[in-house]
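From the shared-data thread, chain only:
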Amino acid sequence: MNSNEMNKILEQHKIWLTSNGKNGCQIELAADLSYRKIIAADLRCAGLMDCNLSHAKLSYSNLKGAGLCFCNLINANLRYANLSHANMYRANLQSANLRGADLRGADLNTADLRGADLSNADLRGADLSNADLRGVNLRDVDLSCPNLNGTKLPESTFIILGQKYIISIYGDYVRASSCANTHYQNHLASEWRQFSKQDILDMDGEDSLKFYPRLLDIIDFYCGKGERPEWLKAQNNDL
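Structure, as tokens:
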């Protein structure tokens, strides 16, 4: 498929979207679009099942509700793409760039994400059950909300439930999220051990201050034992 043919398909899809399906034609493709440059395109609800999109450049594109199941997206650039509620069941996303992508409510069941970059991605409500996330960059990702049933997580990644806050540990980074997701903090384990009393109070008031010793216990268990700040030692000695 050459560039002119692709542009015509995109134009017909745009007409279909703006006319609420009365005119134009919805994209329904199972084509080889590898290495294709489709940046910032409006591909909402596009049917791309079984497409070969390996190495394709789709950054900033709107793929909300798109059908991408079984797609080959190896090394695809989906940086800051809107993939909310997209169907990516069994998609191959190995080494894909999903940095900052909106994946809220996306179906990634059994998807292969090995080596992908998901840093700063929004995974709230996503279905990652049985997905393979080994070697994935999860920096600044909230893992408290996705469905992770049977998910293969990266090495040294843990999710601790049943506490005042949901604790996600990814390598040396420790994230504490409130159940309502109104407050969260993500810092290196070493940084958590150095905060002042006021730093902790500024996070979530008295709730975070009361939980802080328990959080340090969790960090010690999963990341190795470390020092407590002097103010906390003094406070414990006064009890």
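The helical segments are 3-18, 189-192, 197-223, 230-238.
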